[in-house]
Amino acid sequence: MTEQGIGAAVARREDRRFVTGQGHYTDDINRRGQTHACFVRSPHAHATLNGVDTAAAGAMPGVRAIFVGEDMAEVGPLICGWAITDVHGEPFRAPPHPALAIGKVNYAGEAVAVVIADTLEQAKDAAAAVEVDYGLLDAVVDPAQATADGQPQIHEAAPGNLSFEWALGDKAAVDAVFDGAAHVTSLEFANNRLVPNAMEPRACVAEYDAGSGEHTLHIASQNPHVHRLVMSAFHGLAPEHKLRVVAPDVGGGFGSKIFIYAEEVVLTWAASRVRRPIKWTAERSESFLTDAHGRDHATTAELALDSDGKFLAMRVDTTANMGAYLSTFASAVPTYLYATLLAGQYTTGGIYCNVKAVFTNTVPVDAYRGAGRPEAAYVVERLVEAAAAETGRDPAELRKTNFVPADAFPYETPVIMQYDCGDFAGSMDQALDLAGYSGFQARKAESKAGGKLRGIGFSSYIEACGVAPSAAAGSLGAGVGLWESANIRFNPTGNVQLFTGCHSHGQGHETAYAQIVADKLGVPYEQVEVIHGDSSKIPFGMGTYGSRSAAVGGSAIVKAADKVIEKGRKIAAHTLEASEDDIEFAGGNFTVKGTDKAMNIAEVAFTAYVPHNYPEGLEPGLDETAFYDPLNFSFPAGTHVCEVEVDPETGSVSIERYAAVDDFGVLINPLIVEGQVHGGIGQGVGQAMLEHAVYDGAGQLVSGSYMDYTMPRADDVPSYDVGFNGVPSPLNPLGVKGCGEAGAIAAPAAVMNAVHDALRDVGVGHIEMPATPLRVWQAIRDAA
Amino acid sequence: MTVSVSLTVNGEAVSADVEPRTLLVQMLREGLGLTGTHVGCDTSQCGACVVHVDGESVKACTMLAIQAEGADVKTIEGVADGDTLHPMQQAFHENHGLQCGFCTPGMIMSALDLVKNNPDPTEREIREWLEGNLCRCTGYHNIVKSIDAGARAMRG
After folding, report:
1. Residues with Cβ < 8 Å from A434, sequence gap 6 or more?
2. Among B19, B43, B78, which residue terminates a domain?
3. Last residue of some domain: B78, B112, B139?
4. Among the listed residues A35, A13, A206, A174, the one whose alpha carbon sits nearest the alpha carbon of residue A117
C-alpha cells in the first residue's frame, strides 16, 4: 500500500470546496434570462380533476406560461423500469403516471399545473391564484385494506388496487417442513414508512438552445445518464444526442435522486416552449410530499426450527405499499431486492415468500438506502432473535449454529442467490469482543440497580450489492443494463483525467477513485482528476446506488487502467528496444526485465502524444475506455450489536453502545468507509427509534415537516464502534463488496432486538418501529 | 415595493434593494451570490443556513434581510484566511466530518459559535448544541469528532 493508494485513509480532496462554501449545487446555478417554476399541487389525496382555471393567474405580473396535463399530452408518462411477472404469469399493472395530472389526482402533492414566471415570488403568487375544481373521492390509505372489497379504486388498469402478487420459492415444500418442525416462531410487524430527506432538496434548471436544438438539464441526480435515457426514450423530450444532463454537486441522495420525477420532465419540456431557462427547487414541504418514500411493508413471518435449533424453513407474507403509482424502480424493491435476501447468513433449508404490491393514495414508494434489503434483514433478524428467546438459547450462539460455514462458499441459497465468500462466524466473534458482550450481564445488573432496563440486540445481516450483472438483472425484469464505464485519459504532460459513469453525492469518489488510478498506474495521486456527472463528458454511466460505485465503477477503472498498461507496454518496448514480453510494469515504471532500462508512464504518455519514434501501426494517444459488467452481486455482511437502556418511567430509549463489524472485502479508503457505516447506522437508528411517515385517513401526510417528522439529531445517537473483517471478493478485480447501505440495513434489527431484550424483563412481547418513548411507555403499561 | 438595506458581509459594506418579504438567506444567495449558505428546509429546523450576525449564530432563513440593516454578517465564505483554512474547517476535513457537504457550512458556523462560548466542550455539549443542525450523511459521529478537534486546535 502506498501513502495514497488503495487502502490508505486519505482525507478527501472534495472537502475544501464544501468547507469554504464553494460547492456548486443545482440551486446555486443561475442562468441569464432565467425564469422560475412553481407547481400547483393537489391538496387532496384522491379526487377527480374537473377543471383548471388559469385565466386570472395567467394575467398576473411576470407570468410567462401556465401549463396543465393536457398541454403535455405528447410527453410520455413517468415509467417504472423494472417489469414484474405475477404469480399467474401476467405482467404487473403499472398504470400511467402523467407528469401533470390528467382527469384525476391520486395523492396529496401530485402536480396539477406549473406556473412559469420571471421571479419565484411571481410564480408562487400566480400559482396560488390558479383555480382547480376537484371532485373529492374517498382515499385508500391503509395498504392492508387496499385490496378489500368496496375500497375506492385508484386506477382503472389495476382492479382491486393491486399492482401484482408475486412469489418466490416452493410453497408446498416449505409448508411440509413447517408441519414437521419442532418449533415455529411467528411474528407480525410493519416496516415503517420513511422519508429519505437528503439535506439538499431536489432541484433542476432546464435550458433550451434554439440555435442548436440542444436541451441542458442541471439536476440533483444520482444518475444523469439514466435521466437522459429515460427522458429521451420514454418521455420523448429530445433525442439523447440533443439532451445534456448535468448533475453537479448533489447534497445527498439515499435513493431519492435516482428516479425520474414529474418536475424535471415538465421543466425540460417547458424550457423549449417559453424559450427561457427555468429553475425549480423543492421547498422541504414539497420534498416530504413528492420525493419517493421508502419501506412501508406489513409482514407476517415464520421460522421453523428443529430440536437442535437448526433453521429448517422460513415463510414470509408481505404487503408492500407502492403509493399511488409505480416509481422508477419501485417494483424491484419488495421483490428481487427483498425476498432474495431472506436466507440471511444462514443455511435455512427452504424459503417461501409471497408479496402483494398494492396502490394507495400516498406518494410513490421506491428505493431508499438499502432498498428491500433492510426490510429482509429486519424479517430474518427479528425472527432469529425471537426464536432464540422462545427456545431459551443465546442469540449469538443460535446464529453461529446456523451460519453458512466459511468453507461452504460459493454457497447457493434457496432464494436464487449465490454468495461468493464470507466469514460470518469470524465477524460475529469480532463484534462480540467490540461490543464487550462478556460484560453485558454486569452492565444490565447495574442498570437494574438504577431502576433501568438494559437490553442487547444483534443483527447479522447480509445484502446484495454491486448492482448488477446485466444479464441476471434483465432476466428478472430490469429494463436497463447495470454495467459501468470508466475512461482514463492521459494528457501529454502526464497528468490524468478519469471520467466515471458513477456519481458522487457524498461518497467521496473524487478521492477514492483517484486512489485507485494512482495505485494501479503509479501516477501521483495529486495528478489524477476525477470527473463525473455530466452526460456530455462521460461515455455513458448507470450512476450510483445499490452500493455499486466501488464494485462496479471501481472495477471499470481497473479494467481501463489495464488497457492503458497494455498499450504503454507496446510504446515502452519500442522506445526501449525490447520485446513486449520483456517489459514489466510496476510503480508507474515500464522496465526491461533484468535490466535498469526503464521509462515512466508520464514519458510513455508524452511519447503517445508526440509519436515521432513510435511502434508501427499503433494509434497515437493514451486514452482508454472500459465498460465493466459484474459477474455477480457482491455480498457485504457482518454483525452489528446494539445495547440500549430503557427508562421504564418515561419510555425513553438510550443507545448506550453500538458496535459494528462488517465484511466489505478490500477497503479502498477506510476513512470514507467508516463514514459510510456511521451514516448508514444513523439512518437505521432513525428508522428504529424516531422516523415515521404517517398519513391520516384522508391521505394527508401529517408528518410533513421537520417539526413533525423526527429526523435523528446529534443528541439522539451515540458514537459508534466500527470494525472490519474483510474477505476479499474473488469476483471483481479490486476484491471490494460495497459499503454504502450496510449500516441502514443492519441497524433497525440490532436496535429493535435490543429494545425487545430490555423490555422482555417487564413482559413486553412486541413493539413496532419507531420505538418512541410513547410506544415504549404504553407497551410497558399494557404488559403490567 | 422594495426597501433598501445596508450591512457588512464578510467585512465588506454592501447594500441592496429588496422586497420586504426577502429573507436574509435569499439576499445572501441571490443578491450577493454567496451560495455557500444553503436552504434545506422551510421551518427553521435544519440549520444549513446558519451565519453569524453581529457575532452570534443565526439561521438566515428566520430573519428578514431588512432586519439585518446595519449588521455585521459573516458567512462560510468569510471563515478561511485566504487560502488557509480556519482550524475548524481543517478539522472537518481531517476527521471526515462531511460527506455531501450540504449541511457543512451551517455545521461549521454553528460550531464556531459553540466554541466561542465554550472553548472546551464535552461530547455531550457538542451533541446538544447541534440540536438545530441536521445532517443526513454522517450519523453525526465524525461531525462531533471534528468539532472536538477543531475546538482543541483553536485552544492552541
Report:
1. A641, A659, A660, A661, A721, A723
2. B78
3. B78
4. A35
d(CA A671, CA A659): 17
Tell me what pLDDT residue A82 has. 95
Tell me the residue type at A333.
Answer: V
Contact assessment for residue A553 and residue A533, using Cβ atoms and an 8 Å cutoff: no
CA distance A705 to B133: 15
Burial call B35-70: b when 16+ CB within 10 Å, e when fewer: bbbbbbbbeebbbbbbbbbeeebbbbbebbbbebee
Residues B50 and B18 in one domain: yes
Sequence spans of domains, chain A:
17-137+199-252+257-290, 297-468+632-783, 483-628
Identical fold at A17-137+199-252+257-290 and A483-628?
Answer: no
Mean pLDDT of A758-777: 97
pLDDT given at position A468: 87
Pairing of strands A418-419, A623-628: unpaired
**Could you identify the residue written with the cell 429493535?**
A752
Which CATH fold would you assign to the domain A17-137+199-252+257-290? Aldehyde Oxidoreductase; domain 3 (3.90.1170)
CB < 8 Å to A681, chain B:
139
β A183-191/A297-305 pair status: antiparallel
Q: Which residues contact A59 (CB under 8 A, 6 or more apart)?
A: none
In Å, how far is B132's CA from the nearest CA of chain A? 8
pTM confidence score: 0.97
Total domain count, chain B:
2
Min CA distance, A705 vs chain B (Å)? 7
Residue B61's identity, in one-letter code, is C
Average model confidence (pLDDT) across chain A: 97
| Distance in angstroms (rounded) separating the CA atoms of residues A542 and B124 | 42
> What CA–CA distance (Å, rounded) separates A347 from A343?
7
Q: Which of residues 99-118 of B touch A (CB under 8 A)?
A: 99-105, 108
CA A62 vs. chain centroid, Å, equals: 40
- Residue ranges making up the domain that contains B46: 3-78
Tell me whether 0.90 is exceeded by the ipTM.
Answer: yes
Please answer yes or no on whether B96 and A674 come within 8 Å at the CB atom.
Answer: yes
Backbone angles phi, psi at B107, to 5 degrees: -60, -45
DSSP secondary structure string for all residues of A647-714: -TTT--EEEEEEEEEEE-BS-S-HHHHHHHHHHHHHHHHHHHHT----B-TTS-BSS-STTTS----G
* Confidence class for position A467, pLDDT limits 50, 70, 90: confident
CATH of the domain at B125: 1.10.150.120
Q: Would you call A19 exposed, middle or buried from its count of C-beta atoms within 10 A (0-12, 13-18, 19+)?
A: buried
| Cα R_g (chain B), whole angstroms | 15
- Collapsing DSSP to helix, strand or coil, A377 comes out as helix
How many CB atoms lie under 10 A from the CB of residue A758?
26
What residues in chain B have per-residue pLDDT under 70? none
Burial of A149 (0-12, 13-18, 19+ CB in 10 A): exposed
- Which CATH number covers residue B30? 3.10.20.30
Interchain CB contacts (distance < 8 Å): A and B: 185
Interface test with A, best of B59, B102, B125, B130 (most A CBs within 10 A): B102
Q: Was domain A483-628 assigned CATH 3.30.365.10?
A: yes
Nearest CB neighbour to A20, from listed B21, B77, B99: B77
Do A10 and A515 form a contact (C-beta atoms < 8 A)?
Answer: yes
Peptide bond into A389 cis (omega under 30): no
Q: Which fold has domain A297-468+632-783?
A: Aldehyde Oxidoreductase; domain 4 (3.30.365)
CA A423, CA A638: separation in Å to the nearest integer? Answer: 8
Residue A672 touches chain B, beta carbons under 8 Å:
yes
List A659's β-bridge partners, or say none. Answer: A641, A721
